[in-house]
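Could you join me in thinking about how sequence relates to backbone shape in a protein? To get us started, please write out a protein record for me. Would you write everything just below, so we can both look at the same thing?
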Amino acid sequence: MALSDQELMHEVASGNETAFGELYDRFGKLVFRVAWQFFPNQSESEDAVQEVFIRLWRTADRFDAERAKLVTWVMLIARRHMIDRLRRKRARPTTQDYVSDPMGDGPSQTEDPTEIRAELRVRMERLSELQKEVVTRTYFQGFTLKETAEQLGAPLGTVKSALSRALAAMREGPKPEM
């Protein structure tokens, strides 16, 4: 006998892997179709689907059958995740983007990416621990400022300020030695 939406999500929330498999069986193809609309690359779509199901696993206890059908809730989470992922992808160019753009403000095509990474490490070392954490989580791990604040247990304003100060400090370049 198939579980109702509420029962299924209750089982998923309690860590039942069989229930999670059923959730994937019910909605995997549908979520993949949504991912494919945002990311027509097979590998990237598959990664996005995995991330959506991880998010569903982690937030299963928030599902309320009285507020929405399970399919609606799953699709809402999938859509939001795809949009967030797309925004992160557009907002955070990689080092390679700078290296391949000789007319941009970033490093020229002739600069070695290894040197760029080394300079980045040097500049990161000057930051406070909070600033390093915020930069790492937002720029290198792709978390939003809100997610970073939640993970660090810090107010959102503190995280925003730390990021702003960190970026300003990193733009300044090396401090002159005396």
